[in-house]
């Protein structure tokens, strides 16, 4: 993945802390450390309110197991994107990034990129450092710039981590935040944790009520910064289909998960290819899906057809493990 071009796109700075929204009357709800047992319910609450949020995902922290090989996490992360939320990185193992060397830091980021690409077919350009520790002296910020990340802080801390069961303390803090001068303009970036149940469920409902009373809109971080959704993610230069998690997408978009079914023989390869073409066609005919995603899948189907036609004669074997999708194609 280190070979990927990390072009800087758009107006939003890279390798630089951003702590508030730019767009008036928007609020960015952000959730760190997940997914967790509360995330599915949180997604239902957001969905009911028509609210969008941003999830800063830690790939393998708190003993939850790797996100790309634990199917309940894989499913919930796919749902985030399908529901129109933004998926961002919170590192792989949740380390203090100022306390590690550049090489370890980049490796930890790369692991999360690979895992998210295994699930979504793409990886984020937005990240939040654990404990917000990422400074210039340690070289962390320049690493994030090299890797092409927007570094996201927050304007207001819900403080949910201080007393995880005390809803009153959390709502009082949020009340104060909404009364502050910054919030009068209706631009706010709030931090919560979906690993903390009272925060994910109860506090979210409370905040959504306040937002609707004020006529504000709960949006993703990208949207509250007026950054084009195209720039929230990067395509990996290649995808090894064999390394993908079982229910991962090669192309992931809103309401759409383009998949290539596993195959181990020439016959299965062609059968899988027919399914690929059908999925691409259905995508094209559906009203709701972004046509760019359908075109991406179509390109991959054509590459698969070529692969099926030439594999096994005698090399390479007709196995999904030998079919790598070059995303630059
Ligand atoms: Zn965290």
From TrEMBL:
One of its GO terms (biological process) is carbohydrate metabolic process. InterPro entries: Glyco_hydro/deAcase_b/a-brl (IPR011330), NODB_dom (IPR002509). This is NodB homology domain-containing protein. Its cofactor is Co(2+). CDD domains: CE4_ClCDA_like. It comes from Cladophialophora psammophila CBS 110553. Keywords: Carbohydrate metabolism, Cobalt, Hydrolase, Metal-binding, Signal. GO terms for molecular function: hydrolase activity, acting on carbon-nitrogen (but not peptide) bonds; metal ion binding. PANTHER family: CHITIN DEACETYLASE (PTHR46471:SF4). It holds the Pfam family Polysacc_deac_1. Residues 25-219 form the NodB homology domain.
């Amino acid at each position: 993945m280190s070979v990927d071009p990390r072009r800087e796109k758009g107006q939003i700075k890279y390798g630089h802390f951003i702590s508030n929204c730019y767009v008036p009357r928007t609020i960015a709800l952000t959730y760190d450390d997940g997914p967790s047992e509360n995330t599915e319910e949180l997604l239902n609450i957001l969905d009911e309110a028509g609210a969008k949020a941003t999830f800063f995902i830690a790939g393998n922290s708190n003993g939850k197991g790797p996100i790309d090989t634990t199917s309940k996490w894989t499913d919930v992360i796919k749902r985030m994107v399908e529901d129109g939320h933004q998926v961002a990185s919170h590192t792989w193992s949740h380390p203090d990034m100022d306390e590690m060397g550049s090489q370890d830091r980049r490796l930890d980021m790369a692991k999360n990129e690979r895992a998210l690409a295994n699930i979504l077919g793409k990886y984020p350009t937005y990240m939040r450092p654990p404990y917000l520790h990422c400074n210039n002296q340690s070289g962390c910020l320049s690493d994030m710039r090299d890797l092409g990340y927007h570094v996201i802080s927050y304007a207001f801390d819900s403080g949910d981590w201080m007393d995880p069961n005390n809803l009153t303390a959390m709502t009082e803090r949020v009340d104060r935040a909404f009364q502050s001068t910054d919030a009068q303009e209706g631009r706010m970036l709030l931090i919560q944790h979906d690993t903390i149940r009272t925060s994910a469920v109860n506090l979210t409902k409370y905040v959504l009520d306040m937002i609707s009373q004020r006529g504000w809109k709960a949006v993703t971080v990208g949207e509250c910064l007026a950054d084009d959704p195209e720039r929230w993610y990067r395509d990996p230069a290649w995808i090894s289909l064999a390394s993908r998690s079982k229910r991962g997408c090669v192309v992931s978009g809103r309401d759409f998960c383009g998949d290539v079914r596993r195959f181990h023989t020439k016959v299965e390869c062609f059968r899988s290819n027919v399914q690929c073409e059908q999925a691409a066609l259905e995508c094209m005919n559906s009203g709701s899906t972004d046509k760019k995603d359908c075109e991406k899948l179509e390109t991959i189907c054509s590459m698969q057809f070529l692969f099926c036609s030439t594999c096994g004669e005698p090399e390479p074997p007709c196995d999904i493990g030998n079919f790598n999708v070059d995303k630059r194609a």
